[in-house]
Amino acid sequence: MAKLRHFFIIMMLMVVVMTGNSVVWAATAPPTSVARAAELVDAATGKVLFQQNANAELPMASVTKLMTLYIAVKAVVQHKVSLSSLVPADEDAYHIGGSQIWLRPGERLTVDQMLKAIAVGSANDAAYALGAYLGGSETQFVAIMNQTARQLGMMHTHFVNPHGLPVRDHFTTAHDLAILGSAAVKYPLLLHYTSQWQDRTIRNGKGGSLWLINQNRLLRTYIGADGLKTGYTHAAGFCMVATARREGTRLIAVILGAPTSKLRFADAQALMTWGFLNYRTFKLATPSNLPKTLPVAHGAISSVMVALKRPVMMTVPTADWGHVSWRIETVPRLIAPVALQQEVGSVTVVVPNQPPLRIPIVATQTVRRVGFGELVWNYFWYIAQ
Asked: Angle 193-215-127 (CA atoms, 0-180°, nearest 5)?
């Protein structure tokens, strides 16, 4: 064993010497997954880094509640409801079964409490009550869930309830859940709830408080983890959508149908660790050499303010991180009128072994054209001052 270790050290030193005293990153093979389906994506770019049976339509158990949380948080952010709004429980919520906070018929909890119960305690009764409150009924809320899925591009997902208890025709894919996870992490409020590993703020009906424990143990064991949702039923197996953020890179790992809870977490952790080692998210919002304005001929003003149409987002292999370059091109002569969001140039980002990414440069204001008579008048007015 000692000889083998010494041989390994010597080989590593030879690599360093032969590469000019610099460390060379080589992409390692992705880990294997024991789950029925899995996927790993860069949340910022949507780049798929790993897939295994990712388009198979499978049950998702309580991972369903991620869509319920997503719709509810969007409603709060869009001021359709507030965190202090009171959500009533009915007989159906009371009899829902499974994981629950034992809502009583006629009882009201705030949206904030319901979100905690769903995100931390995976409470089926809270998911039902909140969904019925937001949609007007469970049926109407499920319609919103399916509509939202289509809008996000989740083309192989169908919801039948807001909580994930077993029922026919309730299914998704690992790829679709990666899409949902990438959309969900754009809301800090949602991550606020999914990152909590325990909660003791909800009554237990006996004068005390429930102690809700999040089943996502990665929150306590994996650096950067802050969500998103676990689930289990006999039919679905052990499932989860996991996310973590490290040094500006956020990854989403989806596991469907793992044989045990331990293997579910091991798969998610292994995939994200491999992803963080081998890929980074390149972000460029304002290149340092991007002009703030461009000159305009025959305009009411002599220049127009410009900016990137959208930030540059690319998933870059670690080996290529130091070789990213970009070039800026603008139109040789800009003549008024100039419309808002008119393309006036581009930034092209180049990464080895990847197609170049071109992002337009656009005008961020309008510039009207002035006629010859107005130009003459302005000239004489200027010299008369």
From this structure: 55
